[in-house]
Amino acid sequence: MIRYLARCAAQFAVALIGIVTVAFFLMRAIPGDPALYMLGDFATAEALATLRARLGLDLPVWQQYGVFLLRAAQGDMGVSVVTGQSALAEILAAVPPSATLAVAGMAIAICFGVPLGIIAAVRQGSAVDLAVMLLALGGISFPVFWLGLVAILTLSHALGLFPALGATSEPGFWKGLHHLALPSLVLGLSVAAYIARLTRSAMLEILGQDFIRVARAMGVPERRIVWHLAFRNALIPVLAVIGVTFAWSLGNAILVEAVFSRPGLGSTILKAILSRDYQLVQAGVLVLAAAVVLLNTALDLIYGAIDPRLRRT
Amino acid sequence: MAETMMAPSFGRRAWMGGAAALVFGAGTGVQAMAQGARTLRVRFGSDISVLDPARIFQIENQSIAGHVYSGLVQYDQRTNEIVPDLSTGHEVSADGTVWTFRLRPNVTWHKNYGSFTSDDVKFSFERVLDPATGSLYRGQLAGLKEIQTPDPLSVRLVLEAPNSGFLHKLCAFNQGWIVSRRAVTELGERYTMNPIGTGPFMFDRWTTGNEVRLVANTAYFGGAPALTDIVFRVVRDETAAAIALENRELDVFFALQSPDVIERLRRATGVTLLDRPANNTANLVLNTTAGPLADVRVRRAMIHALNRKALIDGFFRGTKFEATSVLTSTFQEFSDDGVPRYPYDPDRARALLREAGVSNFRFEITTVGLNPFDRFPVPLANDLQQVGIQATVRVLERGAYVQARSSGNLQSCITAVVGPPDPDSPLVTLYHTRSHPPGLNTSRYNRADALLAEAARAPDLAGRKAAYNRLLRQTMEDVPVIPLYADRLFIAHGPNVQGFVQNSLFTVNASPVSLRGA
């Protein structure tokens, strides 16, 4: 176990260095210049040179990269070139609302996606199966920002059930939950569609195997076959896709955050990219990458718990 | 602020409130909603980024700063007349080079940063002028030679040459906002997002990507505001913001641009829609050094070929005004007497092109990928194609666009100069040689410097008006820049808002607002 954890830690470090390195050079490869962004309408050659020197942008890129790595190793991700605030602090402040939205969305996705996938598989070819698959197709096909606008127009404006804004500064747990409901529902339903389709196909594959036929022949009750034999075996690919879709839903959260005017990592990183705020982008990529790598490591450990055969590999 | 939220007891309710604030992305707003709060909720289209007047840009930042800071003088929100702010009056020496301001006594800085004195004025302007500060507005104060402080309540500004438009540079906007020497020195880099001013509202907190909160400055020299606080909520999508306004989740909708949403709010019950002309125009800037564009007949042909009225009536559905020059009627110095007009006339355009011997002219409009700049050049390119110019549109993401434009190599680009009602703001920026790339004079026009200097030397408003009129006539004869439309500002507010005054600065200022029934 210790060797396994050590291997995970090493993979974690390599993945993080790789990702932030790619982000570092990609940001510098795209056209645009933070100094020009900040000077805007009043840029003069002299003002540009002064600001570029102040921001350290006059150094060769490899030198900038060296300075960045050295500082990052000490936990210093630098300060935002636009706001002058600690880049890491600004990013970490955006984590709780994003994490809340992603977790709430994932909970909704699992609550809807897994049972619907199982029902569709058990009743393969029936009207229920067809309805679930059509719904899933719709969920996958409609862009999440469109679903968001439709949800605002119907559930908020026409029916008045939820607020149009996805965050509030007013106090109260239930008030906060009320504002969170619509964005997490929209995010969750789009992810639920994927999970439902995958659960269905994984269940169908398992239900068609010999040991299920044997169990049925031996008179094992159908409920036990579905939940104890088939579902447990179908759980591995479903868990794998939940891990992948969690990372995907973090990306989709950018759109949901924009439509519902929620703060979060997505909007913060997007703003940083648009203003070429290199330090903020690097800190954001680091935090996001760490979250995804940690999640996948956690999922690896869960696979081992579910299927002992996987512990040996 | 977090300490206030946690203390003093950390019982179940406090835990729930704290958890809600952290989890739901609402910042630490528990303390904000005290009993009897008169909170105004204003929609912002983007998040804020810089609140230091030396480096400030973008209308959202300027809107926050407008509540926090004061200047020696300020623009009257309704008339754009220049009226006293931190000063009580001023005298100008006979030769027009020495400006002496008397300052208001007993003005204090926010958050116990002491009393406002002439030393703060000296510090503010010297800071903008210091190249090490990297201020965007250094050029605005370029003619300021010396700042003297004979006593704590008077300041003397010595200019290199007389400039009757100098008051514009001192108005409460950008470089005109006065900062506290002590606050800037003590806070260092942190000052960027922790502004200390003398204005009617104090900066309280910023929750990245979500909201900014200001609280009333009860010691404000102009009298305590009627509101207790203002919350500026970032709501990017205009439709969502319109629904939030109709649902009473917001009180004021700032930066309303979409014709669809404007129409929707015009019909909405309980919503008041305000509009007024802005200080800026949107322009097609032609590079006068690039091939056929060097010929004035080609440039005149292009302005005749563009159906600008159809653009305003069709694409913008009447939400913009026609522009006769890059100066709009909101400027005190504006006069378009004798300024050449170019009605839509494709036949005249074709004739001018023939006269210039131009055929198969490939022309590219470069624009920024932001609404509506990414779409309205398409009908313009179509108009140019109708007269035989092979026009195309290239849309670039903002960062790439700014870089491409600053290179000075573009054939043409779309540029709007948003700023105060100081004629130098659009005119120097678009026509002066000191604004050649990387500045915004991407037409590389070089015949305006003398006329701009003449306007600065003019002894009074009438003289300045005449000088700027000569400049407008000349630039519209030379057509290095085609003004496409004059911007029009729309703001909507809910039924409980009263006393709202819309300015022409493209900012929102809620200082005089009160809430009905609060």
**Residues in helix, % of chain B:** 25-40%
Q: What fraction strand of chain B?
A: 15-25%
Given helix and strand content, the structural type of chain B is alpha+beta
Count the E strands of chain A. Answer: 0
Radius of gyration of chain A: 24 Å
Our Rg estimate of chain B from Cα atoms comes to 24 Å
| Assigned CATH class of the domain at 92-276 in chain A | Mainly Alpha
Share of β-strand residues of chain A:
under 5%
Extract low-pLDDT stretches of chain B: 1-23, 25-34
Please give the oligomerization state of what you see.
heterodimer
Largest sheet geometry of chain A: none
Strand order, sheet with most strands of chain B? 8-9-10-1-11-16-12-15
- The mean pLDDT of chain A is 85
Spatial separation of the terminal alpha carbons of chain B? 25 Å
Shape of chain A: globular
SS summary, helix count of chain A: 12
Structural class of chain A: mainly alpha
CATH architecture level-2 label of the domain at 92-276 in chain A: Orthogonal Bundle
What does this entry look like structurally?
The complex is a heterodimer of chains A (313) and B (518). Helix content of chain A is 78%, strand content 0%. Chain A contains 12 helices and no strands. In chain A, helix 5 crosses helix 8, helix 7 packs across helix 8 (173-207) and helix 8 crosses helix 10 (222-260). By secondary structure, chain B is α+β, with helices and mostly antiparallel strands. Chain B has an 8-stranded mixed β-sheet with strand order 8-9-10-1-11-16-12-15. In chain B, strands 4-5-7-6 form a 4-stranded antiparallel β-sheet, covered by helices on one side. The model of chain B is unreliable at 1-23 and 25-34 (pLDDT under 50).
Question: In summary, what is this structure?
Answer:
Chain A is mainly alpha-helical and 313 residues long.
